[in-house]
Design brief:
- The structure holds two protein chains of two kinds.
- By secondary structure, chain A is an alpha+beta fold.
- Chain A has five helices and three strands, in the order ααβββααα.
- A three-stranded antiparallel β-sheet of chain A has the order 1-2-3, covered by helices on one side.
- Chain B has a seven-stranded mixed β-sheet, with helices on both faces.
- In chain B, α1 packs antiparallel against α10, α2 packs parallel to α10 and α11 packs parallel to α14.
- The chains are: A alpha+beta, B alpha/beta.
- At the A-B interface, α1 of A face α12 of B.
Chain lengths: 151, 405
């Protein structure tokens, strides 16, 4: 495991140029989370069109792993339903060995969401103290979806 | 150069070649400290005080000898002014609650600083809320020093206590505690010094320091975790109520009331950290065998080398003074485009252990305009090679993240 495997170019790209950065005018759901140990902060805002996510905004600050993970996540959840997002989250958490078997999120034959760029984060698994960085945005996402609808 | 490179062999953890630059968080332990604790636990261990058998007497003697050793190390005239605590944090809480709750009210003001570690800030916030006292702060100048003009302006008759660090764990700066104390005493305020970084790295004579309370931890000065010291001027200790009640700290107890034992035991409820006191004793012997002047000189020399070479790393910003005046061996830094946690991970892969984060000083981070820094801190076992490894790791991080491209 080398540093190049952890800091893949796609991760650094999302870190330098985070996608969907900012805030929504009228979010349907909103949540913010902080990792008190390291101070990383992420705010997620979601707008729905019917049962699908139409807009996502991510704000916050922190390390390349937390910010790139949230950036890639914001791209991956667009157009998805709540159920599909939960499935994606499950696959991501599996990949990070947070629960269930490692690597099942990478099996292309499994039904449901495909991780895509997010697979680049699997190198983080070898750095246990950094897994919480990668998972911060996802925890905030689930909190947003479980929260009260704002509009 | 105060060449201490021969000392590295005394520290078993360092034998695998790690470049350990996180002594500001906790220091490594030399073999004499480990052996002293091991020997004591094997041969002389029992609970202290009141035991009417030889082992307990031997343990009590060792525990009280450690108190006398601490007193001698910090120039305290009376060993009874040395209270063993769980660490510097507990010592500061003892003062905040044991002294503050007794002497502060809604008309009073607590003066602490913008550069404080949470341990000398949060307890005062808690006590301010409970007593109604106001909390005020000495600001930092743009040169990373306490603003002493602002301090003089803020000092008023309502200021009852001034709580200040002896050495910042983020900036490395050593505020002029003596003059701060003298000014505070002119208006009758008590002065509490968080010396968790100062005592391990600099000769400290408490009588010269001028403060009323001085707190520090053993684990940052080559000793074990679980023990620290609160030194207090006897007249100040007499103003303090015990923060914890229990065994060891009483004189007489009835079902409804109790009277306190004499100082220091009044403030040492329950079984104290006995083996740890023996370890701290050995750590002080070890430090004194080097000489604290030499420890400070060594830390400063490494800091000077680091500051000079860090200046050549593209995109590197020192968060703190770049001169050696009134500063210890702590260097905080940020690297443009690379978050401190990524820096720490990359440095770790290069065998360099540094701390990354807010260093328990969130208000100071805000004042610096950063959310986190990477911090290298030096101690007796560090060498120029450790600094070189740090510089190499920082350059590697810059390359990996394309800093300056």
């Amino acid at each position: 495991m080398s540093l190049e495997d952890l800091y893949r170019e796609v991760i650094l790209d999302h870190y330098r140029s985070p996608r969907n950065k900012g805030h929504l005018d009228k979010p349907d759901y909103r949540a913010e989370g902080v990792n008190p140990l390291c101070g990383d902060e992420i705010t997620i805002e979601l707008a729905f069109d019917g049962d699908q996510v139409s807009q996502v905004a991510v704000a916050g600050q922190g390390c390349s792993i937390s910010q790139s993970s949230a950036s890639m996540m914001s791209e991956a959840i667009k157009g998805k339903t709540k159920g599909e997002i939960e499935d994606l989250t499950k696959r991501f958490r599996d990949m990070m060995s947070l629960d269930g078997e490692a690597d099942i999120g990478l099996d292309p034959d499994r039904p449901g969401a495909v991780l895509g760029d997010l697979e680049s984060l699997q190198g983080v698994r070898k750095y246990p103290v950094r897994i919480k960085c990668a998972s911060l945005g996802w925890n905030v996402l689930l909190e947003a979806l479980d929260g009260e609808r704002l509009s | 150069m105060a060449d201490l490179s021969h000392l590295k062999a005394d520290f078993p953890v360092l034998s695998n070649g790690v470049h350990f630059l996180d002594s500001g968080a906790s220091s490594q332990k030399p073999i004499p400290v480990l052996e002293a604790m091991d020997n004591f636990a094997r041969s002389s261990y029992a609970n202290v005080h009141r035991g009417a058998y030889k082992l307990s007497v031997a343990a009590t003697d060792a525990y009280e000898a450690a108190r006398e050793r601490v007193a001698r190390f910090i120039g305290a005239s009376d060993p009874n002014e040395v209270i063993f605590t769980r660490g510097a944090t507990t010592a500061l809480n003892m003062v905040a609650f044991g002294w503050g709750m007794e002497h502060l009210g809604p008309e009073d003001r607590i003066l602490t600083t913008e550069i404080e570690h949470h341990a000398n800030l949060v307890p005062w916030q808690m006590v301010a809320k409970r007593t109604g006292a106001k909390l005020d702060h000495i600001p930092m100048t743009d040169e990373y020093r306490l603003d002493l003009d602002a301090y003089n302006e803020k000092l008023g008759p309502d200021v009852k206590v001034v709580a200040v660090t002896g050495m910042s764990n983020v900036l490395g700066v050593m505020p002029p505690v003596r003059s701060i104390s003298d000014r505070a005493h002119e208006i009758g305020a008590r002065v509490v010094v968080d010396a968790a970084q100062l005592v391990p790295h600099s000769p400290v004579m408490v009588e010269m320091l001028g403060a009323d309370f001085v707190a520090f931890s053993s684990h940052k000065m080559l000793g074990p975790t679980g023990i620290g010291v609160l030194w207090g001027r006897m007249e100040a200790l007499e103003e303090m109520e015990p923060f914890e009640g229990g065994g060891e700290m009483i004189s007489e107890v009835t079902l409804h009331d109790a009277t306190w034992a004499a100082i220091p035991h009044r403030f040492e409820a329950g079984t104290p950290p006995i083996i740890e006191a023996v370890g701290l004793h050995a750590a002080i012997d070890y430090l004194d065998s080097i000489g604290m002047e030499k420890v400070l000189e060594h830390d400063r020399e490494l800091t000077g080398i680091a500051l000079e070479r860090l200046g050549d790393v593209p995109g590197l910003n020192i968060q703190g003074p770049t001169t050696l005046e009134d500063r210890g061996g702590v260097v905080s830094m940020t690297l443009d485009g690379v978050h401190a946690h990524d820096l720490a991970t990359i440095l770790d892969e290069e065998g360099v252990a540094v701390r990354a984060g807010h260093h328990c000083a969130k208000p100071l981070m805000r004042r610096l305009g950063v959310t986190a820094t990477a911090r290298a801190s030096f101690y007796v076992y560090n060498t120029e090679e450790d600094v070189d490894a740090l510089i190499g790791g920082l350059r590697r991080a810059g390359e990996l993240f394309g800093v300056g491209e």
